[in-house]
Amino acid sequence: MKRNILCIGAGYVGGPTMAMIAQQCPDRKVTVVDINEARIRAWNSDSLPIYEPGLAEVVNACRGRNLFFSTDIGRGIAEADIIFVSVNTPTKTFGQGAGCAADLQYWEKTARLILQHATSDKIVVEKSTLPVRTADALSRILRSGDSAVHFEVLSNPEFLAEGTAIADLTHPDRVLIGGADTTTAHAAVAELVELYAAWVPRERILTANIWSSELTKLAANAMLAQRVSSINALSALCEATEANVAEVARAIGMDARIGPKFLRAGVGFGGSCFHKDILNLVYLCESYGLTEVANFWRQVVVINNYQQNRFVATMVRAMFNTVAEKRIALLGFAFKADTGDTRESPANRIARLLVDEHARVVISDPRALDNARTDLASLGDHVLFEPDPYVAVAGADAVAFLTDWREYRELDFPRLLRSMRRPAFLFDGRSFLDHDALFRLGFNVHAIGRTPLSHLDN
Ligand code: NAD
Ligand code: UGA
Prior knowledge:
Layout: E1 5-8, H1 14-24, E2 30-33, H2 37-43, H3 55-62, E3 67-70, H4 73-79, E4 82-85, H5 105-117, E5 122-126, H6 134-142, E6 151-155, H7 165-170, E7 175-179, H8 183-196, E8 205-209, H9 210-241, H10 245-253, H11 274-287, H12 291-318, E9 327-331, H13 346-356, E10 360-364, H14 369-375, E11 383-385, H15 389-393, E12 398-401, H16 406-409, H17 413-419, E13 425-428, H18 435-441, E14 444-447
Parallel strand pairs: 1-2, 1-4, 2-3, 4-5, 5-6, 7-8, 9-10, 9-12, 10-11, 12-13, 13-14
Helix pairs in contact: 1-3, 4-5, 9-11, 9-12, 11-12, 12-13
């Protein structure tokens, strides 16, 4: 009899990862629980709580067969042999470490729930991204009761990216499993390796010491974000020197030692994790007295914010140093294409900066408009939301592209231009459009890391 799997936390990670395990291991019962009843209802409906290409197909194939979504956390824990903890670990907003450290309250409550409801031995797997040495705290909580239940804590960070979650889970670059150096931990690691080996080639399943595993997750996100900030920092220099950041990135990326990925200049990284994980790393370094190391990583976030401020400054400068009362259409609010997620989206900060300049901001997005409404609720009627990009742009002085949705490449640009006020400005915050063609149509084109193409210069 294959052992039961439970995941606590039915979010962007818990839902897709467990759906993948259920699909790849049809002889396993996989249950996903959450305190959020609406979310569980959505997982049990035709309208899943998150948008992720290919996810609905995987869920539909397994739900009710060996994949179950429930709010009965106690029962789930009692029946499970392997428990993945995939609750949110946002940045702390209060008290010590506010704005930097990870808020571990959800994770800590989950640990206590496991202790309360467990009546048999469990493998407890950290799937959430956590500060290094959290496994130690988790083990101590789990050992604090009087029951004879044995808990083996492992670290198995998740590396999926939103928008490509199903592809990433199907063919992961690697699966990382960390455990202690004890006989029981070795057995637990071997069991988790076996689970993944159902579809992941063995050479891609890495085992490591538990602290290395925890730190790798923070380090991997920090390194990826660092590349984005590096190219964005260079984009500012490109604009000052008439170099073209796309050409620079291409040439840099062809060096096999550097590689071409994560060198796309733009309005900066967003998403729920880069920002919080780097700040978490900064906090950890500071708490170990590693000030210079903390400062190095903090600079990645500084450049990210600078890039968004710089983008808005470029807009204002190009539009004759005022955008007050001008209609500005922001196309794209999701933090990247193919997701409805808007957490830490650069568009959020950019919209607010433009409202500070008294612009009349209209936001459009094919998937993220509901989230955008919620995120910007405090701006009241200073911001409009419009699903149709053509309606959003009609009558605007400027259109700014903040998410590189595929459908935006295929827009009828002559039609957009005809509907705009003159002079018409186009700001490409993702460097993904054909700037020469847009300039020839009549737009004044400003793209990150490139010399502006303006009809107004002479
Ligand atoms: P999320 O906010 O989408 O989901 C977390 C879920 O946990 C929520 O639905 C919440 O209700 C639930 N929860 C909180 N406390 C609970 C409790 N005590 N009992 C039951 N459920 C509880 O978060 P997410 O994006 O899935 O991220 C989860 C973790 O995975 C984070 O640590 C994150 O850093 C990490 N991670 C996220 C991604 C990503 O792409 N979003 C990728 C890799 C790793
Ligand atoms: C990122 C990592 O890629 C995942 O490995 C990790 O599991 C995840 O964080 C996490 O821990 O949550 P994600 O944030 O979903 O995944 O998306 P990415 O594709 O990494 O993009 C992050 C941000 O960087 C986006 O806003 C994207 O537009 C931006 N980006 C990315 C650039 O601006 N330029 C690039 O070249 C690449």
